[in-house]
Amino acid sequence: MGGRRDFRGSKGSLRPEFKVDHYFDEIVNQAIEWFSPYAEYIKVVGVGNHQSAILKHNEISILDRFVGGLNNKNGTHVQLGGYGGWIVYTFDRNG
């Protein structure tokens, strides 16, 4: 909530590492670092209200950047899901 057009936030209330002009890049980079140890277990990342609002007001898809960065760093195949939908799992008892 530290983007320029977010009326709820202010740069003063951010952690020091996020008080930069490239705020969205910093939060994506930190998220990639934080989730990298678990990347092989992540199959889908879904879009929610905050990501939709960032895209609408700032013209940047932070989840596209996050998923791409996570896959590039870890050689994984995490998929970006939509705002709504279904994930269907099929299990094989013998496999």
What's the Cα radius of gyration?
16 Å
Percentage of residues assigned to helices: 25-40%
Across the major sheet, the strand order is 1-2
Number of strands: 2
The biggest sheet, with number of strands, parallel, antiparallel or mixed sense and barrel status, is: 2 strands, parallel
C-alpha end-to-end distance: 45 Å
Output mean pLDDT: 84
- Summed up, the domain count is 1
Structural class: mainly alpha
- How many helices in DSSP terms? 3
**Morphology call:** globular
Order of helices and strands: HEHHE
Query: β content, as a range?
Result: under 5%
- Runs in which pLDDT lies below 50 for 5 or more consecutive residues are none
List keywords for this structure.
4% strand; mainly alpha; globular; 95 residues
List the helices and strands and how they pair.
Elements: H1 23-35, E1 44-45, H2 49-58, H3 62-74, E2 79-80
Helix pairs in contact: 1-3
Word description of this protein:
The protein is mainly α and 95 residues long. It has 3 helices and 2 strands. It has helices at 23-35, 49-58, 62-74; strands spanning 44-45, 79-80. The protein is globular.
Short description:
This protein has three helices and two strands, in the order αβααβ. With 95 residues, the protein is mainly alpha-helical. The model has no long low-confidence stretch (mean pLDDT 84).
